[in-house]
Amino acid sequence: MSESERPLTGRVALVTGATRGCGRAIAVELGALGATVYGTGRSTRAGRSPIDRPETIEDTAERVTAAGGDGIAVRCDHSDREQVAALVDRIRRDHGRLDILINDVWGGDSFVEEKPLWEHSLDATISVLRNGIETHLITNHYAIPLVLEGTGGLVIEVGDGKADVPYRGNVAYDLVKASVVRLGAALAHELRSHGVTALTVTPGWLRSEAMLDHYGITEETWQERAATLPYFDHSETPHLLARGIAALAADPDRARFAGTCLGSWDLMREYDLVDADGTRPDWGSVDTAARQVVLDSGMPA
Which Pfam families does this one have (predicted)? Predict the structure, then answer.
């Protein structure tokens, strides 16, 4: 691929929560367009995070490099201020710039139970908020100043659904996902005068590693499940959203989207993209009632 086909060559990106799912795919697709990508997470080859899954940040970094970028794995707990500050200091020392900040960190699923607020463990409720909101605030606090040292930066909050998503079955989880959408809009308000574009993005019904395991399927066999699971034929891989984000990062006119919440389907249409399997899944065409069916199936859309 020529340099003209790698429009993010020379750009430095930080993707938080890059161990698996959308975070991993975003890191890889930014690398495919030539970016240097710092991918963070808590799961390494030396030890797993409390989520206890096999994917690691080292695996992600290797995939970024194989795609054509420069992948750098950094273990970082984004609830720890000192670790985040050290991460940003390292990026400053290494490159003196940060052009793209993607906040995809989460890691709160293990704390979520479908119980009323007063019956849900208060410690678990607070842990959901800390994993889903506090980590984003800490990361933005330390990383945005480095973005501001450059010109024309991009800050993206990765959420789960737009404003019309049905109630998610848990107060804390519902609050976190709604807050991330609002955070992207709030950051856009504060960053617009600095020439930095901020917004929120969301995938549709995502065939992440964890979701595939949940249904006992693989990326090669998922269509068999679509015959019995309503609307599953509209599901997508993490790479559809990731390709949309990479296209957005390479778009010199991306400021027109500041403050909005874009779905993977919006980005697919805007940039004429296809998913990793060559399809064009359109979760935006599925109505709210159908989305409730997905939520009731046990995995969020």
Answer: adh_short (PF00106)
